[in-house]
Structures are given as C-alpha cells and as structure tokens.
Sequence to fold (243 residues):
Amino acid sequence: MRDSDHHLFYCENITGDTITLDSGESNHAVSVLRVRVGDLIQVTDGRGTIYECQCADVRKQSISCNIQNKTVIPRIIPELTLLVGLPDKEHFETILEHATALGVRRVVPLIMDHCRKPWWESWDKLSQRFTSKMIVSMKQCLYPCIPHLDAPVSLGNVIDTCDKPLIVAGQHGKKLSDADISPYKKLTCLIGPPGGMSSGETKLLELRNPLIISVAAARLRTELASAAVCSRIMSAFLCPAAV
Fold:
C-alpha cells in the first residue's frame, strides 16, 4: 500500500498488541487501497492515538495487524462545546462532519422552540449513523478524535452546565477578536436553529451575559454558521496574533 500516511483506519476497541479491522474497514482496505500482507497502515480508536500497524492476515472480511508503534496526538486547544439548535437531519449531519474536522470537543443538539419537524424522536435509531458520519470525517482530516455527541436536550437544561465564556452567533453581534477568547482553554458557542430563537430563549441567554458575535454580513444557515463560528474560534488559538 502506498502513501499509508494519507489514510486512517478506525477500530472501536483496541487492546493488546493486535488490531482486527471490521468488515467495512477491511473491504475498503483490500478492494480500494490494495492493502497486502506486510503493509503498514495507521489505525485509531478515535480517542487521540494513532497506531502504526503491520498487516499480518489480510481478507476482505477481516484484517489482523500487529501494532508496531503508537503516537498520542495532543488534543486541539481550546476545548470547544458546540450547542446547536436542531436543523433538518441532513443538515445536522453536515454540522457533525464539520465539527469533527475542526476539532470540536463536544456537540450538544438543542431542542428549541422554533425547531421544525421532530425527527430527533428517533434519536436512538439514528445515533449510530451520526457516529459513522463523524468517523468518516475524522479519517478524512487525519485528526484521531471524535467529538462527544450528547442526546438532544432543551436549552434550559444545559445552559448552566457549559463552560464560559458563552459565545452566541447573532446577525447584529460584534466582530470577534482574538483577545476576547484567547485567555480561555474551554469555551462554549451556541448557534440557533433555522427558525431562530424565541423571545423566551433570548431572555434566558441574556441572563448569562453571553458574548454575541457576527461572522458574516448576511444571515447564515445553521450548518454554515456552525462551521464559521467554530472555525473562527479555533483560528484564535492556531494562528499567532499579529504584531
């Protein structure tokens, strides 16, 4: 297999010195990437460690490999929690994919007053699909950490448990500066649903003294606003401040 550094495989449970990939990962490795016995591959459990492995037994249904080395990848700073008012299911999946790639630590889907059709009532049936979406994104961006995904909850039930400062996206907010957030290692940002926030939810937030910011001249869709705000927050820590 060529360019093993450009591919990352996933295995949920890694113990001991041997890793066995499931049928989905194995079939992709054999049929698409042409993995053979003796090849080196990279595997992660999504908890921050990359294992360099040598393939010992290669089949489409199962690949067994021996761990040669492991590297613990430092978690991205800050530890960012994303609160997001639930949009349509497909758009929520997009949010999860982007949040994973950006290094968001935790995603909390919010059931808000102006959320639309309650597809989340089937959350238990959909949670594995959402996890799979995050795994695919993790593998593509080569950052071996999957965000923690909470079950849907109301704003009132979660707002007082989140890290401060609380950054809220609003069309008429201020421009976020690095100085607003760079002193913090843990932050929370909130993006409203497509229907916007109700007056009651707005009042609830106002009592928490949020930092209301704007990242675009026009109103953004929930999935785009989520990516824009998270990216802006992360950039304050990834890029050195201009002198």
Observations:
- The chain has seven helices and twelve strands.
- The radius of gyration is 20 Å.
